[in-house]
Request: fold
Amino acid sequence: MEIRAMTPGDWDRVRDIYSEGIATGDATFDTEPPEWDGWDASHLSDCRLVAVVGGAVVGWAALSPVSERCVYGGVAEVSVYVGEAGRGRGIGTALISALVEASEDAGVWTLQAGIFPENEASVRAHERVGFRTVGRREGLGKMEGRWRDVLLLERRSSVVGVD
Reply:
């Protein structure tokens, strides 16, 4: 497996993997993947990665800012998705680990992730690279007639933003 920077040419496969995540019902509140322009505008340009196996993109990870306020300039939210065929092979953990490194290179001191509790594989993958659960947002959103909780996980850098 190779992890490399995502390019605009990866978008079709990244979008397909995002659609596979949506189809699980346990990856996001989104019901449709975004178009490239919207996705591109909402994610940090220097923290976008893809996992490649056998020449094919099998997963992706990216960061988006949590706020436009300058005091939150080093805080970002993690998105990580692994295609159906790549699940259960450590790809998600590898992507998150590489994203942590990229985030620290970009000056990000806190990463956060909102994960449905039912998505146990994602929770475990985040925990493996130092995330901890800091809260549970009960009934945060309604999805297909059902209120959904979201776990809030966080990872504080030990090298960026440390005095």
About this structure: Residues 22 and 30 are 7 Å apart (CA to CA).
